[in-house]
Amino acid sequence: MVKSMLNAVNRMCAHEDAGRFLLRLTVGGLMLFHGLHKLIDGVDGISGMLVAKGLPGFIAYGVLVGEVVAPVLIILGTFTRPAALVLAFTMIVAWMMVGVNITGQLDKTGAWAIESMVYFFIAALAVAFLGAGRYSVAPKYS
Fold first, then answer.
1. Model confidence pLDDT, tens digit, residues 87-97
2. Are 117 and 106 in contact (CB under 8 A)?
3. C-alpha span between 62 and 60 (Å, rounded)
């Protein structure tokens, strides 16, 4: 009985392309909120952090590629793998800018202080490994 029930659940949930689509919507959609915030409020804060580390402030505009362009491509499912790798790289840069010193810490609610950066990094790698799947604007280029 248990085996037949597990087989039924496995058959019901065996929709890999739907899973890829949901993962793309989640990763791209949630990251896009971060990017829209920077589109609306600007990248001055990031620019200031870069200058403080001895880097040119203008490279702060690169965050718009990682947090706006890449998520939109991921959501649409076109150039999905390269876009996901750009997003993963963006999370490495974010960690280097603000997360290195808090990597071993918890935040005030008890979560890992860099939890969201790690989530986006790992999820972006998962999207890069899985590709867009069938439910995408341009599956040929995913």
1. 999 999 999 99
2. no
3. 5
